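Dig into this one:

. . .
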Amino acid sequence: MTNLFVLQLLNGVQLGVLLFLIAAGLTLVFGIMDVVNLAHGVLYMVGAYLIATFAALTGSFWWGLLLMFPAAIVVGLVLEVLVIRRLYARSHLDQVLATFGLVMIANEAVKIIWGVSPLSVPMPELLSGSVPLMGPLQYPVYRIAIIAAGLAVALGLYVVVNHTRIGMLLRAGATNRTMVSALGIDIGKLFAIVFTMGGVLACFAGALVAPILSVDTGMGESVLILTFVVVVIGGIGSVKGAFFGAILVAVVDTVGGVFGPIWLRSVLDPSAAGQVGRMLAPMLVYILMAVILFAKPAGLFGGRG
């Protein structure tokens, strides 16, 4: 039982760092630019397709990952200039409709370019295999690498947001973007940087997950809902909130889904416990969100008002 708990806890942390990579960009876009971007999951999908393409062309996962970054920057800039920039002054309903349409366009474009068959990315040989953790328990090296990469990005974002000038502008923009603009800061340039940085993080998450999941159309929608939950729980505009919210949501979702039926057996008969557990498992993160918002309406690290 202990081994199973540790295994699921690690799986939760691994999912959490992937959610953080997606949520960090989304919370900055929503908190600073005030744009509800339903197409953020598309960038996660595009990142997976980009690394699949570049890895196939070069025959190397590492070259594929390296080439993915400049391509992700181009994709982010193009989306910001052609679509998102035109939505800044529009209502949230217009933003939702426009970005939802962008999701449908992107999915069809992916089918036209790459086809409908799922793609796969080979596991890098350096990160293949498993390592022993405790007793007979082993854990894949690649999943540990995902956790390490996510933590490294979180540390890098912490340094950028809290100890650089661009980070100062990001924090100020999340607090009062009108005042930032009035002080002479090029708000359009700041928005472009924020959106592109968020897009690159989402693409990086898609690239990391590509070797362990099939790369197919619509893969971004499955994580987008959880990402919005992370943003709401952590607090809109807070990178620190996105990190802790992502870990919390992922651990509750992973551990609760496995151990919920087991814990319910102490008060219910096994068949009823299994049925109730299966019903409650998909609801756990939303129950968690409701409880946190009841106690802190702005989220764990959200600002007042």
Q: What stands out?
A: The chain is about 75% helix and 5% strand. The beta strands are 130-134, 137-140. The longest helix spans residues 2-33.
